[in-house]
Design brief:
Blueprint: H1 2-20, E1 26-34, E2 38-42, E3 48-52, H2 64-67, E4 73-82, E5 87-91, H3 92-110, E6 113-122, E7 125-130, E8 133-138, E9 157-166, E10 171-175, H4 176-227, E11 233-242, E12 245-249, E13 254-258, E14 279-288, E15 293-297, H5 305-309, E16 318-327, E17 330-336, E18 339-344, E19 365-374, E20 379-383, H6 409-418
Length: about 425
């Protein structure tokens, strides 16, 4: 009777212990036995725990013996209490899944990148495993470009962002596309910043070189201007032609040769004398070192034809020339190159002339008498009708102080005729 009571007490204790163990609780024990399809766990509750190979959360290619050994401590979730054989069914997988889901939730909240292994693909996307949890990646989130075949991703390890997390519905959605796009954006930004930095460096270098070149050119220009003197002969190159003259580069500084200084002859247009790019010899006629303005002449300022002809021609001289142009009031006659005289219409003939061209025309060679001559102002007038006129005699010798003040010009003339 005592023995039966002792057995009853034992059964009661076992029942109480079983009742105290709840499904879903986490329990820790030591591995006491390893089989091909399960491990046995020794627990401090008077019962053993069993974890099947499917609940150990092993890699597909791994065996139990590769991961666990007898004596290893292991924690698992109680999934079932078996009163018949007094064992507890445990799951390491469910314990790991709970922990792994928390990591996924944190990654979702903190926008953190996780790496998943693609274990399965379907037409609409791919399933990636993060530790013990599966994450679905829609086909639109597999790449930044269009994906035609999801099978290309089988077995691949992909970095993803968790873009949807719903533990109640066991819905975890990842995006590899967002990771790629973010990387591309970062790379583009880095490239832009690098290009911008390189451009800025080039700009700084260019500005420094330009400033140095500007200072060098300025120094050279100042030195060149300082070396110029009026009357100097210099070699230059025509850089620009305008209606009123030509700009000529003297080797770093430009001067203006006015149309009036291109030739001693009359110049109708600058283009008739010079052309752009032409190399010419010029004379310096003016230098303003304060403003940097330089006046140039193509004509030889050291050999003014008016100065030369002043030694050869006097008033009343009979000379020859060529008619170069006519106007309503007369004509212009070239006496020598660079020297033109004015022939008034009133001096074309003894008779009245209504039209200049009825007497002379451009190109005509004519003989004329010098009426007035002022080389200092470059002026000369001539006459055709006075060519054969006798020059007036100078009677000043007869008009001295000792002569009778009562004498008249007529008396003087009669006296001269008598002589």
């Amino acid at each position: 009777m005592t023995k039966e009571l002792s057995m009853q007490e034992l059964l009661d204790q076992q029942e109480q212990l079983l009742n105290s163990i709840k499904v879903g609780e986490i329990i820790t024990g030591t591995i006491t036995k390893i089989n091909n399809d399960e491990v046995t766990i020794g627990l401090n509750v008077g019962f053993d725990g069993v974890i099947s190979v499917d609940e150990l959360n092993l890699d597909k290619s791994a065996y139990i013996e590769d991961v666990y050994k007898v004596g290893d401590e292991i924690s698992a979730v109680i999934t079932k209490v078996s009163e018949k054989d007094c064992t507890l069914k445990l799951s390491k997988l469910k314990l790991d899944m709970a922990s792994d889901k928390k990591e996924l939730e944190a990654a979702y909240a903190n926008h953190k990148i996780l790496t998943v292994n693609i274990v399965k693909t379907i037409e609409r996307g791919a399933f990636g495993r993060y530790k013990s949890v599966e994450v679905f990646i829609p086909i639109s989130q597999l790449d930044t470009k269009f994906v035609n075949n999801t099978r290309e991703y089988e077995g691949a390890n992909l970095e993803v962002y968790i873009i949807e997390f719903n533990e109640a519905k066991s819905k975890m959605v990842g995006s590899h596309r967002e990771v790629l796009k973010e990387r591309q954006d970062q790379e583009r930004k880095a490239r832009r910043e690098k290009i911008q930095a390189e451009k800025e460096e080039q700009r700084q270098k260019f500005r420094a070189e330009k400033q140095a070149e500007k200072e060098r050119a300025k120094a050279e220009k100042e030195a060149l201007i300082d070396s110029l003197e009026v009357g100097q002969k210099r070699q230059g190159k025509v850089t620009n032609i305008v209606s009123y003259g030509a700009f000529i580069d003297l080797g770093g500084v430009e001067g203006l040769a006015h149309i009036n200084n291109l030739s001693w002859k009359r110049v109708e247009s600058v283009e008739s004398v010079l052309e752009s790019g032409q190399e010419v010899d010029v004379y310096v006629i003016d230098v303003n070192k304060e403003t940097g303005r330089i006046g140039l002449a193509l004509k030889d300022v050291n050999n003014d034809p008016w100065d030369l002809i002043a030694k050869e021609v006097n008033v009343d001289d009979i000379i020859t020339g060529k008619v170069v142009r006519i106007i309503d009031r007369g004509a212009f006659v070239e006496i020598k190159e660079g020297v033109e005289a004015y022939l008034p219409i009133s001096h074309l003939s003894e008779n009245r002339v209504a039209n200049v061209s009825s007497v002379v025309n451009p190109g005509d060679e004519i003989t004329v008498r010098v009426l007035t001559f002022d080389p200092s102002h470059k002026r000369m007038s001539v006459s055709i009708k006075d060519v054969n006129k006798e020059p007036e005699e100078d009677y000043s010798e007869f008009l001295n102080k000792e002569e009778d003040l009562g004498s008249t010009i007529g008396d003087l003339l009669r006296g001269k005729l008598n002589k």
